[in-house]
Design brief:
Layout lengths: L6 E4 L5 H12 L3 E6 L2 H11 L4 E5 L7 H13 L4 E4 L14 H28 L3 E5 L12 H25 L2 E7 L5 H9 L23 H12 L10 E4 L18
Parallel strand pairs: 1-2, 1-4, 2-3, 4-5, 5-6, 6-7
Helix pairs in contact: 1-7, 3-4, 4-5
Family: Belongs to the short-chain dehydrogenases/reductases (SDR) family.
Protein name: SDR family oxidoreductase
Pfam family, one: adh_short_C2
């Protein structure tokens, strides 16, 4: 098991990609501290993972006390901290005409500042243990879609944070920092969102090959597999890198004018 003995904090871990990462980490021998907003789903996940393998901290990651609470919980419950996965995110549509400053600030607070705060709070413990950070971004970080303005910019800022800290923290403290930029992922929330937008229940079974040359979009478990590798010692001294998990080239791909999607 490639994460045997490691203790990992995972934010946004009650659902979606974060939940898949938590499950994969435990399967690979790690102990996890999971954070999220959905108390009932968090308790259910703890029951699945086992109390001996996981601890739950419910709370908004933007609250100033949460980063230190997560670090102290890891130390108190499992004796140390080896890694952090910044997965919690705020995803909402906006464009140049309807993006208010308060909305923009909230997007940055959740998607960029909160990950920074958790890394900052974790630095001492991670340095002691030769630890690492994996940030979950989005392929929208490279520019994004017109109706995902604020979200795309916040993920672009996270990508720069990853590049910067991945170099400086590795050189100064031996802490690796990397990022995964997922493309379109079939989470339970994505299924519900598309259904609420009027699409049929099985919309994901009939996706244009323009968006999914493989005939399907990514599973959360596939993102989790990449995260587990980056968290492991098998990754070696890789740091300050961004891994795009997408099915097609991002540069030079022309979007049809009549198609708009949300990743």
């Amino acid at each position: 098991m490639m994460l045997s003995g490691k203790v990992i904090i995972i934010t946004g871990a009650c659902t979606g990609i974060g939940k898949a990462v938590a499950i994969k980490c435990v399967q690979e021998g790690a102990k996890v501290v999971i954070n999220g907003l959905e108390d009932d789903l968090g308790v259910e996940l703890i029951g699945f993972l086992g109390n001996e393998n996981a601890e739950l901290v419910i709370g908004d990651i933007t609250e100033s006390h949460l980063p230190n609470l997560l670090v102290e919980t890891a130390k108190k419950t499992f004796g140390k901290l080896d890694a952090v996965v910044n997965n919690a995110a705020f995803i909402a549509t906006s464009d140049i005409d309807n993006t208010e400053i308060a909305f923009f600030e909230k997007m940055f607070k959740v998607n960029t500042i909160a990950p920074f705060a958790l890394i900052q709070a974790s630095t001492k413990e991670l340095s002691n243990n030769g630890g690492c950070v994996v940030n979950i971004g989005s392929i929208n970080a490279w520019g994004g879609e017109p109706h995902l303005l604020a979200y795309s910019v916040s993920k672009g800022a996270l990508m720069t944070l990853t590049r910067n800290l991945g170099d400086s923290l590795f050189r100064q403290k031996g802490i690796r920092v990397n990022q995964i930029n997922p493309g379109w992922v079939l989470t339970d929330k994505e299924k519900r969102n598309k259904k609420e937008q009027g699409m049929k229940d099985n919309w994901f079974e009939d996706i244009s090959d323009f968006f999914a040359p493989a005939g399907r979009i990514f599973k959360p478990e596939e993102i989790a597999n990449m995260a587990a590798f980056l968290l492991s010692d098998q990754c070696g001294p890789v740091s300050s890198q961004v891994f795009d998990m997408e099915q097609f080239p991002l540069i030079g791909r022309n979007m049809p004018k009549d198609i708009i999607i949300t990743k």
